[in-house]
Design brief:
mainly alpha; 5 helices; 0% strand; Tetracycline Repressor, domain 2
Length: 117
């Protein structure tokens, strides 16, 4: 049996934040250079991005179906969560006031509260 949607969502949140925090330069360059890709390569990146968004949206749909999540529009919530998580890289610095574990825990708390009734 698959893991509960709540656990999958928690794992998604932690993965996204940690992946981006571990690679701030690569993430910055990747976002800034999208406009310089050929049409074909941009389409590849867009497909990967859509697949990533679809993964999160499927977790949200499963949580709604199980009654664990109260989300009116899974697509909007998907985009909002990804934007919120990606924004961590604009301010987080290793050695700052909060550890990465504390950031992950606080963001998980915000996401959890946003999707539950």
């Amino acid at each position: 049996p698959s893991r509960p949607a709540m656990q999958q969502l928690q794992d998604f949140v932690a993965f996204h934040i940690r992946f981006h925090a571990d690679r701030p330069d690569e993430v910055f360059i990747a976002y800034m250079e999208l406009r310089n890709l050929t049409e074909e390569n941009f389409a590849v990146i867009e497909r990967l991005r859509r697949d990533y968004e679809d993964r999160l949206e499927s977790i949200l749909r499963a949580g709604v179906a199980s009654g664990d999540f109260a989300v009116a529009d899974t697509k909007i919530v998907t985009l909002a969560i990804i934007a919120m998580l990606t924004g961590v890289n604009t301010w987080y610095r290793a050695g700052g006031r909060l550890s990465l574990d504390e950031v992950v825990a606080q963001y998980w708390d915000m996401v959890r509260k946003a999707v539950t009734a």
